[in-house]
Structure formats: structure tokens, C-alpha cells
Amino acid sequence: MGDAASGRGRVVSPPRTAEDIFKDYRARRSAILRALTHDVEDFYAQCDPEKENLCLYGYANEAWEVALPAEEVPTELPEPALGINFARDGMNRRDWLALVAVHSDSWLIAVAFYYAARLNRNDRKRLFGMINDLQTVFEVVSGARQSKERSSMDNGGRAKPSVKAENNGKGTDVAYGEDDSDHGETLCGTCGGIYSADEFWIGCDICERWYHGKCVKITPAKAESIKHYKCPSCNSKRARQ
Fold first, then answer.
1. Is the pTM for the entire model greater than 0.70?
2. Rounded to an integer, what distance in angstroms lies between the CA atom of residue 59 and that of residue 57?
3. Mean pLDDT of 76-96
């Protein structure tokens, strides 16, 4: 979880170039993704419907925070959706998280293009292109893109790449040292990073999302002994059932 000192409404040196704005966007996105996936139990507990209107903030230092909205008007930066906690107990948990994800995507774009107001047309277009190359928070949380890609595979189209490695008879999906071109736009389900051949990756056998080994604390050696890997998100879902 982030802390209030991490910078809400107190931007010391705002990003000015398309690259710096994208870096800020990516860091805030990583923070939001962590809240909605890896830290989801903590996030869920903090969104108490009995509390006042709460917002989910992601900061440029990749910390997140559930807090009351900024009091100053107008605020220095666009504010995220207000009152995300009120619907928590009135919706299916997965649907509620997806709703928060959609609102978070809108806020991330709003902040990025608030900073981009002084960029020229070509730089704004380039910024949007970099942002659009990443999965949205909603796509990561709901698995929307993976579902579309699996559907494309069933219909003969290009599907999300998958490498099935036989580990002494084990069936866990792992990817390490494979050609980048074989993995296309595979993104880490935790941090949203793009696949790189020099990093170890592991695929969840339940939701079929891929993860950096370091993001889920799985090493290549540890993966050798895993028959069926379940990511932290799928493990937490099973525990609640």
C-alpha cells in the first residue's frame, strides 16, 4: 500500500516529454494493478462500505492508496472515481474489481493527458501509441484480452503464445529463453511488463495468464517441482470458496 506522502496532489516536477509522461503512466498503472491483483485482499478490506467516499490512487513511485478525495478545488491533478467502496458488498466480487479497473483506466488516461496538454499533436499521438501497447487495467484484471486471444486461436487466428515445457513429466507452463517474436504481446499479469527472452516467466494453469517469475516469487528451479501452477489471484479465489 502507498502512503499519503507518496505525492497525491503535490507534483514537484511534472513530466513534460511523451517518454516521461508514459513512464509516469506506467508506474501509476503498476500501482493500480498491484492493488487489484497481488494486494487484492488488502485492497478489498480497505474499501469498507461503511466509510466515507473512497478513491483508489496510484502514484509515480508505484505505491497505491485507498483514501478520501483531495479537498482542494480545483485539484492539482484529475481525481479518480469517487465512492468505489459503496458498491463493494452489493456486487459480485469479480465484477466489482472489474468496475474499479475500468474507472482506474479512465483516471490513468486523464492524468496522462493532463500532463500532455502542452505536447504537440505528434507527441500526443506517440504517447497514446505507447499507452495503447499496454493492456488496460481492466484487461489484466478481467482477463478480457486473453479470452479474446483464445477465441482467436479457436477460430484459426493468431493466439496468445504459449510454451509448454515438459519438466520431468510435469505440465507447468514456463517460458524462458524463447524467441521474443514467438511471444508477441504477452504481458505479465502482475506488473504488465512485456515479455523479454532474458527473463523467466511462468503461466497459471487456471486463468492462463503469464507472470514474471520474480513477480510471483517463483524461480526456474522451483518451477521444476510444480505440477500445476496457480497464480496468487487464483489461489486467493480458491481459498474464499
1. no
2. 6
3. 93
pLDDT tens-digit map of 149-180: 444 444 444 333 333 333 333 445 555 544 44
> What residues pair up with 203 in beta bridges, in sequence order?
173, 210
Residues 190 and 209: their CA atoms lie apart, in Å, by 9
Give the CA angle between residues 22, 28, 32 to the nearest 5°: 140
| Cβ proximity of 107 and 46 under 8 Å | no
Beta-carbon contacts of 211 under 8 Å, excluding residues fewer than 6 positions away, are: 188, 189, 190, 201, 202, 203, 204, 218, 231
Grid cell for residue 104: 482506474
Give the lowest-confidence range in 84-88, 139-143, 159-163, 194-198: 159-163
Q: What is the DSSP letter of 182?
A: G
Phi-psi region of 168 (alpha: psi -120 to 50; beta: other; left: phi over 0): left
DSSP per residue, 90-144: GS-HHHHHHHHHHHHHHHHHHHHHHHGGGS-HHHHHHHHHHHHTSPPHHHHHH-H
